[in-house]
């Protein structure tokens, strides 16, 4: 169940003018602090808080926020995957990725998922509030240092299937385990792993997983 805060929403003209914000953050202290600080902004109201990625869309459909602030690495489902579904099912809701992990590959995937902005968490809350207002005004807001890094890093070299196989290998799964999970033959899994190892310039599957995660490709 999502945690929601809708004190007096819609009860006055002032609250009706407030930007309705959904927060998706798995760290309770961080989530609570962000909610408190954003609620101090005269034109903003946090209407929903969720701790897991698989709660985002349902909570958004229930509370109808104007903007969703999504972390990336969440229990249940990635914030990037949830962002794509959110944009498809509730296109009126803007998406702003706010994460600790400023990786070029994550930025590219966020933009592909329809996010309107990407910020790293090390900035002051005033910058976050300003970014929310800019996104709702139709601008795209991207951390400038990360944008430069993404341009120099180039596109994700891995195909979707190569990413699926590497993701399934994260916990040291065997080729047979991966094949069973993805409904592929073991020979096909080996081919995908070999291709991913070559593209990441690594020596084995675990190094390939590590390199892909560091670049935000998974």
Question: What would a concise description of this structure say?
Answer:
With 218 residues, the protein is of the alpha/beta class.
Question: What does this protein look like?
Answer:
With 218 residues, the chain is an alpha/beta fold. The protein has helices spanning 13-17, 28-39, 56-63, 79-89, 104-112, 125-136, 144-153, 160-168, 175-182, 186-200, 205-214, and strands at residues 19-24, 44-50, 67-70, 94-99, 117-120, 141-142. A six-stranded parallel β-sheet has the order 2-1-3-4-5-6, sandwiched between helices.
* Strands, count: 6
Q: Give the helix/strand class.
A: alpha/beta
CATH topology of the largest domain, which one?
Answer: Rossmann fold
- Overall number of domains: 2
Work out the helix count. 11
In CATH, the homologous superfamily of the largest domain goes by the name Response regulator
CATH class bucket of the largest domain: Alpha Beta
Rg from C-alpha positions?
19 Å
Give the helix level as a range of percent: 40-55%
What is the first-to-last residue Cα distance? Answer: 27 Å
What is the 3D shape?
elongated
> Would you identify the regions where 5 or more consecutive residues have pLDDT less than 50?
1-15
Strand content: 5-15%
| Element order: H for helix, E for strand | HEHEHEHEHEHEHHHHH
């Amino acid at each position: 169940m999502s945690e929601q805060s809708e004190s007096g929403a819609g009860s006055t003209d002032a609250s009706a003018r407030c930007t309705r914000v959904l927060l998706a953050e798995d760290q309770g202290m961080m989530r609570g602090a962000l909610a408190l600080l954003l609620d101090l902004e005269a034109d903003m109201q946090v209407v929903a808080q969720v701790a897991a990625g698989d709660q985002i869309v349902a909570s958004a459909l229930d509370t109808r926020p104007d903007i969703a602030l999504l972390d990336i690495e969440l229990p249940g489902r990635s914030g990037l995957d949830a962002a794509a579904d959110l944009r498809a099912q509730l296109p009126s809701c803007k998406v702003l990725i706010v994460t600790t992990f400023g990786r070029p590959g994550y930025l590219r995937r966020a933009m592909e998922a329809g996010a309107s902005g990407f910020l790293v968490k090390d900035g002051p809350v005033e910058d976050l509030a300003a970014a929310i207002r800019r996104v709702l005004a139709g601008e795209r807001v991207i951390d400038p240092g990360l944008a430069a890094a993404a341009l120099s890093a180039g596109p994700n070299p891995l195909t979707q299937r190569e990413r699926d196989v590497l993701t399934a290998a994260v916990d040291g799964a065997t080729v047979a385990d991966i094949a069973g999970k993805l409904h592929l033959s073991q020979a096909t899994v080996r081919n995908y792993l070999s291709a991913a190892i070559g593209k990441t310039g690594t020596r084995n599957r675990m190094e390939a997983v590590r390199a892909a995660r560091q670049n935000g490709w998974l």
